[in-house]
Amino acid sequence: MDVKRRKFLKIAGLSAVAGLAAPSAFNLLLNKGEALATEGRSGAKSEAHGEKSGETSRQYGMVIDLERLQRSPGLAEKCIHACNTEHNIPQYNNPKDEIKWIWLDDYRHSFPEHSQYKKNTALAKLPVVLLCNHCAHPPCVRACPTKATFKNSDGVVMMDYHRCIGCRFCMAACPYGARSFNWRRPREKDANGKYKFFPDGVNPEFPMRMRGVVEKCNFCAKRTLAGRLPACVEACGDSKALVFGDINDPKSEISQVLKAKYTIQRKPAAGTEPSVFYII
Ligand code: SF4
Ligand code: SF4
Ligand code: SF4
Questions:
Q1: Which of 28, 42, 80, 274 could join 152 via S-S bond, C-beta 3.0 to 4.6 A?
Q2: Count of domains in the chain?
Q3: At 128, which CATH number?
Q4: Tens digits of per-residue pLDDT, 180-230?
């Protein structure tokens, strides 16, 4: 950690302490963070989904069909692998240090508000693919004091690693555990000069992160800007297990799926309006 960064962290720490002693000043800091984030550096839009606010701007979203994923054993793991290699996600093999952008958990933990009473016991263990929900009302964005996390004009909640001071307010604010903190330095090399934590090599097109910053799924912003599908969606091939697109465009494939199928979102009571939907 360089001196400049250490100084920045110190200031942030003092701000947090001052915030505990003086809630109004702290709220001011958070509100400033929100205002800056929603102004955005990339033409960020209002945080609300178009349907509610009357906007017609883009909101990318994803539908995940758990039945289709189950029908093709290994497909979920293929999606995860595609994301990991595309985004240089280090593989520490240690849950304490784990960095995850897309991962698996069981149904019971993924949808704790859904009763399991008298239901098929297999449902509780059903593997569910999880990732950042790119919420319409993202509490992580509101909590960030440096606008390191912000919503872009596609409705995607992004990270600016250079602005992140590692305070982890965003992690505390996210109800979905969708953010990871870099406790370790991913670039460590072994005696032969090879990166230790990237068994499948490194993608030179995507930056490696540094110790002390937070990261998460970015809905493959770089790929979608180039007209490509997210890596996890592409890895699913023609299975349609993952469908990606603009949920504010009534003609998009994802909007058609959302109209035709019954879908659920994670923790709706949190009021964040996730843009990731599940077909069970
Ligand atoms: S899932 Fe969490 S990290 Fe992602 S936008 Fe919502 S609150 Fe933020
Ligand atoms: S840790 Fe989170 S809240 Fe803190 S600066 Fe980084 S992105 Fe913002
Ligand atoms: S959308 Fe992109 S960044 Fe997000 S989980 Fe899929 S591959 Fe990873």
A1: 42
A2: 1
A3: 3.30.70.20
A4: 999 999 999 999 999 999 999 999 999 999 999 999 999 999 999 999 999
Q: Which ligand is nearest to the CA of 219?
A: 3
116-160 residue pLDDT tens: 888 888 888 899 999 999 999 999 999 999 999 999 999 999 999
pLDDT in tens, 221-235: 999 999 999 999 999
| Token pair of 120 as six digits | 């098929």
In terms of residue numbers, what domain contains 91?
Answer: 3-279
Q: Which atom of ligand 3 is nearest to the CA of 62?
A: 1
Nearest ligand, measured from the Cα of 170: 2
The pTM for the full model equals 0.83
Task: Please report, as a single letter, which amino acid is at residue 233.
Answer: V
Distance of CA 250 to the CA centre of its chain: 24
Distance 182 CA to ligand 1 centre (A): 17
**Measured in angstroms, how far is the CA atom of residue 236 from the centroid of ligand 2?**
32
Answer yes or no: is the C-beta of 230 below 6 A from any ligand 3 atom: yes
Q: Is 39 exposed, middle or buried (0-12, 13-18, 19+ CB in 10 A)?
A: exposed
Nearest ligand (C-alpha, residue 209)? 2
d(CA 127, CA 9): 38
- For the CA of 220, the closest atom of ligand 3 is 2
Q: Residue 239, class by beta-carbon neighbours within 10 Å (0-12 exposed, 13-18 middle, 19+ buried)?
A: middle
Tell me if 44 CB under 6 Å of ligand 3: no
Cβ 204 vs Cβ 24: under 8 Å: no
Q: Is the CB of 102 under 6 A from ligand 3?
A: yes
